[in-house]
């Protein structure tokens, strides 16, 4: 925890006056939301009177959080543009798949590809439970990965091969597998991340969001790619049953998260940049984040005769590291939410017991059980979501970025939470 005093002259909104005391204890509960002393300010006081407890104590007897409200113009425009691009891309992607798989291969490949897809999407849902992203944006991410990024890859690959192939000094097959595919595919997938960051920045708040969107895009890309591989095992083999089983085991069982981990590194790096800086820094992080994604992808494609040894010694540890990073991100996200809501409790917006309900997994479960028992689970889900959004807004304020804008959002959110508390109590 830093205790540096503010520098003179930092008097714009969000800065503390020179000489103000250091940060309060626990103001920085985690590395995920670091706040410097010059940005820190108290939460606005509740002038509406003393708050009466409205929620049950945590762990009392007693789906994903509800997403209310209409989509912003940015989200609507992004989803609309994504749908249009997907529709156009289908005229390129679908004939390509059918030409290489045939009708029967396509159908079998489609059905078989649903298994690894479900595995990744269920993981995304688990990661995204604390502060769920809008379903429209998740749909955009999946459609981008499954259709648009495939079309981008198909269009860019010939030109990339023409320009970079001869300079690489590699034979075409080696170049295509270890250079062309990692570079073009990761660029095509991560371009969707950049679109979300640029046109729906309010929903791309940090590394957890980056991982969620990246995993969703990668799940879509792998889904379409698996249709191709599984379908070809049917269409081009003299023993389709055996070949399909082998390809399914390699791609659907041993490596359903391969593309997710590749693109997830880009999403993680972009998310860390989002939590620290401006849009320009996020764009730079997009470029930087492509490098490890491409290297991981290339390393995976390079595995040959010693595949099993490399899988156990290299790929399994990478997967376990990814699990560890995601776990740490989830813990940090919860700790930050709890601290920010405690600051609102100190300002009179919640009781201390309510913070435990709103900002701990056990407290949320008990609150939902209690609300369900009185027929107000939708209102409780809305309140839990609104409290999490409020904590995120406060973190933005304390980060010193667009303070006046986020302070207006804060006032609207506090009024919404007051109304939701009343709706929960009835």
Shape: elongated
The Cα radius of gyration reads 24 Å
Beta strand count:
0
Number of helices: 12
Query: What number is the mean pLDDT?
Result: 86
Classify the helix fraction into a percent range. Answer: over 70%
The proportion of residues in beta strands is under 5%
Q: List the helices and strands in order.
A: HHHHHHHHHHHH
Question: Low-confidence stretches at least 5 residues in length (pLDDT < 50)?
Answer: 1-19, 58-71
- Span between termini: 42 Å
Main sheet properties: none
- What structural class do you assign from the helix and strand content? mainly alpha
Concise summary:
The chain is an all-alpha fold and 426 residues long. It contains twelve helices and no strands. The chain has a domain at 73-302.
Written overview of the protein:
By secondary structure, this protein is mostly helical. The chain has a domain of about 230 residues. It is built from 12 helices and no strands. The longest helix has about 55 residues.
